[in-house]
């Protein structure tokens, strides 16, 4: 018995990610005697939360704050 194939149970996959203009590069490669310059730009972090079904039905929301269990509920 396969509960998802028998339409008894729906399975969803959830994930969240965040984006900002603040670089998070901790190290990098460069040629000997070459200077690498990164100009940081600070911004607020935008978080995105999504839930997708096996049938590719997508529910997504963006949020300026932290993605907490209260937000998900």
TrEMBL record:
Domain of life: Bacteria
UniProt GO MF annotations: nucleic acid binding
Name of the protein in its database record: Tc1-like transposase DDE domain-containing protein
Species in which this protein is naturally found: Chryseobacterium turcicum
């Amino acid at each position: 018995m396969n509960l998802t194939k028998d339409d008894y149970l729906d399975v969803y996959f959830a994930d969240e990610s965040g984006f900002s203009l603040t670089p998070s590069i901790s190290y990098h490669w460069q040629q000997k005697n070459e200077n690498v310059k990164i100009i940081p730009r600070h911004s607020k972090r935008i978080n995105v939360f999504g839930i997708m079904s096996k049938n590719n039905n997508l529910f997504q929301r963006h949020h300026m704050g932290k993605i907490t269990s209260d937000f998900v509920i």
